[in-house]
Write a structure and sequence with these properties.
Blueprint: H1 3-18, H2 31-43, H3 49-52, H4 57-70, H5 73-81, H6 86-89, H7 91-110, H8 123-140, E1 147-152, E2 157-160, E3 167-172, H9 174-181, E4 191-193, H10 196-204
Parallel strand pairs: 1-3
Antiparallel strand pairs: 1-2, 3-4
């Protein structure tokens, strides 16, 4: 089983268990909203633009709400469980594009619940996450107001943010650094070191893809 398939199955099991009204780390979204978002990503390419582009966000939101109106929650979760669109036809593309996306959204649900704890990841998944974090740090941290030095516990360093000015050192496991870089700073178990003002600005920055 690929990492994307494993995260997909675990996320859907959790969604089924929690039901449609549980909170997530995605601002304003319940588990029902997140399920609709994931279906939209894979099955409604015409509406994907609004995920990243604000001028198109209204259309994307309307399509997402339409999916909720059309499909009961268990049905949407069932649609997430099976890769849709091109990802259903090309498993290698599902792994390349969705492994980290599904990991982050799985954690969005897990970490919004009481008493969550970090998962013990397989070495292979840990390596994959760090490979993507280290290669994508510049992109994920492009909106950082300060320079960022990512230190992976166990080895590895990556840089992001402005090349000049204040810098903040962020230390954690690969998965925690991923959550931090994806804009989940408040819920990432990392250690930050640097000028207090710079640390505060980084914590409040809008990071991610």
């Amino acid at each position: 089983m690929t990492h994307a398939r494993g995260e997909r199955a675990a996320l859907c099991d959790l969604l089924d268990r929690l039901g449609p009204d549980a909170p997530t780390l995605c601002a304003g979204w319940t588990t029902y909203d997140l399920a609709a978002h994931l279906v939209l990503r894979e099955r409604r390419p015409d509406a994907m633009g609004g995920i990243a582009l604000k001028p198109l966000a209204g259309y994307t939101a309307s399509v997402q709400n339409g999916l909720k109106a059309k499909h009961p929650y268990p049905e949407l979760v069932g649609m997430v469980r099976k890769p849709g669109g091109v990802y259903g036809l090309l498993p290698f593309l599902d792994e390349a594009v969705n492994a980290l996306e599904l990991f982050v959204h799985h954690e969005d649900v897990r970490r919004a619940q009481p008493s969550w704890e970090p998962r013990e990841l397989s070495p292979d998944l840990d390596r994959l996450i760090w490979k993507r974090v280290s290669s994508g740090a510049r992109l994920m941290l492009r909106r950082s107001p300060v320079g960022v030095v990512l230190h992976r516990l166990g080895g590895g360093v990556a840089l992001g943010g402005p090349r000049q000015g204040a810098r903040v050192e962020v230390t954690g496991t690969a998965s925690e650094l991923l959550m931090f870089c994806f804009g989940r700073q408040e819920h990432a178990r990392v250690e930050l070191a640097g000028d207090p003002s710079a640390v505060s600005r980084l914590r409040e920055a809008h990071l991610g893809m």
